[in-house]
Design goal:
The protein has six helices and no strands. It has about 170 residues and is mainly alpha-helical.
Length: about 170
């Protein structure tokens, strides 16, 4: 029962995310915290990796979670982690897509916050590609989300069929 409710929430949140790039799901605060932690974790590796570390960490965390769920044979959890990855990719796409315009409000401990993706794309000469890269992230996120929802629905259907067979 709870898995069905959770899957309905992930379906709802995914639709919201598709139509509103700044939508905040229950994963948003966790993703933001992991992003900021990533900057700290990558600080010893130099400025470029420190800046990239936030985005890397916010993507690696749901991927790692998905792998852990698979290793534990918690297959429904895999669909939850996949949805979290989708939301994280959409969040990242919004940030990447803002690289040239720099209109998003940035949180920082300094008076002059650094826009990660303006810095990163400028350093590698791809600043003019910010919109295309953001679109690739959104398409990837949408594909991951659709796959995750279908996987979760298939698992619930299998569980329901298995329970129905036992009661006959």
């Amino acid at each position: 029962m709870w898995r069905g409710v959770l899957l309905l929430y992930l379906l709802y949140a995914g639709v919201e995310q598709l139509f509103d790039p700044e939508y905040s799901s229950v994963f948003s605060a966790l993703t933001f915290g992991l992003h900021e932690l990533g900057h700290v974790l990558f600080t010893p590796r130099g400025e470029f990796l420190m800046v990239l570390g936030g985005s890397l960490t916010q993507i690696l965390a749901p991927l790692t979670t998905a792998i852990l769920f698979l290793r534990q044979r918690e297959y429904f959890g895999f669909s939850v982690a996949g949805s979290w990855l989708c939301f994280s990719l959409y969040n990242l796409a919004t940030y990447v897509g803002d690289a040239r315009a720099m209109n998003l409000p940035l949180l920082s401990l300094s008076d002059d916050p650094l826009h990660d993706w303006n810095y990163l794309l400028n350093r590698v000469g791809l600043l003019t590609w910010d919109q295309q890269l953001a679109q690739i992230l959104r398409l990837t996120g949408a594909a991951v989300w659709i796959t995750s929802i279908l996987w979760g629905a298939w698992l619930l259907w299998r569980m329901f069929r298995g329970a129905s067979a036992l009661s006959e």
